[in-house]
Amino acid sequence: MSLSKPQLCCGNWNPYGSKERGDWIRIKRTCLAKWNWGSALKSLNTLKLKGSLDRSDSPLRRQKDESSKPHAMAPLRQKFHASGVLWNEVDANSENVVRKPPADPVHCNGEKIVVAVDVDEVLGSFVSSLNKFIAERYSSYHTVSEYYVYEFFRIWKCSRAEAEIRVHDFFRTQYFTSGIEPIPGSYTVLCNLSTFCDLSVVTSRQNVIKDQTCHWIEKHYPGLFKEIHFGNHFALDGNSRPKSEICRSFGAQVLIDDNPRYALECADAGIRVLLFDYRNSYPWCKDASAESHSLVTKVHNWEEVQQHMISWTVA
User: Fold this and answer.
1) pLDDT by residue (tens digit) across 242-254?
2) Residue 187 is inside which H or E element, if any?
3) What are phi and psi of 103, to 5 degrees?
């Protein structure tokens, strides 16, 4: 799915707190010295790493086809800087993907975990801002705690078509373009994960809001994501794509998402899922069938996301 802006610079970091700083330093040195976890990941059908970390500070990596793509610079060595919107649409594989333009190639010896990240309620607080718009425009007042299902027409007591019109009206307001705040902890953790993960966005958002979505991501998460994929779900026009299909199209091994339906769909496709229920406050995220799936793990904040990702690579 789709609270003040985090700082833009990332230094050395400790996901477990100061009491275990020694253990974290040991893990970090191990990561830098040896990046071949092999047998430790055999039990994780979808996570396989080999090679060694790229120790350079270049934001570019060589691909198998000898092309190169930009990626986030490692936060252990370098600060991030906002750079303006650089997203360009391409349609080589699908009209619903946005990629950053390629640049000069730089050699890279290692492979990273390919991670798909949802937008609404995972990167940004979409429902909170939507509620403010609905209250002003329709004098209908709601809180996040009322959304027992992520289908707005059921909460608003209107038809599905009416709900879709209201949401598209929301897209044309400042509540959407500048009112959605990042989820606390997301930027810092994603900077940290970028040292051993290739991050891309996979959102159910509609094609009609591609530009606004890309601007928002570049503003709050500059340089972190290689690609942005749009599912175009609940759109007034155009075809939609299942998240599992999108994830498979670029080899995603992990999905971070708040929707149990998408979690089950991707888990059944062999993709490991971190089901994101921020501070245990998302009613729609409570789903026993999803949580009982062997490839689905419930998390309640971005620090827990970080801990699970690290545990999967160093176990």
Assistant:
1) 999 999 999 999 9
2) helix 186-193
3) -140, -170
